Amino acid sequence: MSFLVAHWVDLLAVVVLIALLIVLWMRDKKGLVIRIIRVLVARAEQEFGSGTGAIKLQAVWDGIYANLPWTVRILFTQAVLSDYIEDAVDWLRDKLHEADANLLSYSDEMIFDENKPPTLI
């Protein structure tokens, strides 16, 4: 106990440093997580079509848990991922109103190459 009292400033600095590293890592990976969720939303739309919102949402959540490592699922809360899904649905609506809309480009399809899972670590 005396160690904690004597070194509380050092311990606080280490905790702050770890928190800062986590925040920086999350900011770096945010774009890739959003892109993966967009691909999942587009695939669900292609597979299930309109009028199947609950099924598509479940397919997206299943895809998130199947494709994102546990570290991402811990650091990006369910509420944050839900917001990303809603943003991806809005993105998809805009995309579908464009002429010659291509829901998934080749690079998007390559995110989920069965032989190579996405790298987020």
Structure description:
With about 120 residues, the chain is mainly α. About 15% of the residues are buried. The chain has a domain at about 30-110. The radius of gyration is 19 Å and the shape is elongated. Helix content is about 75%, strand content about 0%.
In brief:
This protein is an all-alpha fold. It has helices spanning 2-6, 8-48, 53-67, 70-75, 78-97, 106-110.
What is the mean pLDDT? 79
Low-confidence parts, pLDDT < 50 over ≥5 residues? none
H-E string: HHHHHH
Q: Helix fraction?
A: over 70%
Q: Which structural category fits the helices and strands? A: mainly alpha
Percent strand equals under 5%
Silhouette = elongated
What is the CA-based Rg, rounded? 19 Å
Largest β-sheet summary: none
State the end-to-end distance. 36 Å
Total strand segments? 0
Number of helices: 6
Topology:
Blueprint: H1 2-6, H2 8-48, H3 53-67, H4 70-75, H5 78-97, H6 106-110
Structural key phrases:
single chain; 121 residues; mainly alpha; elongated
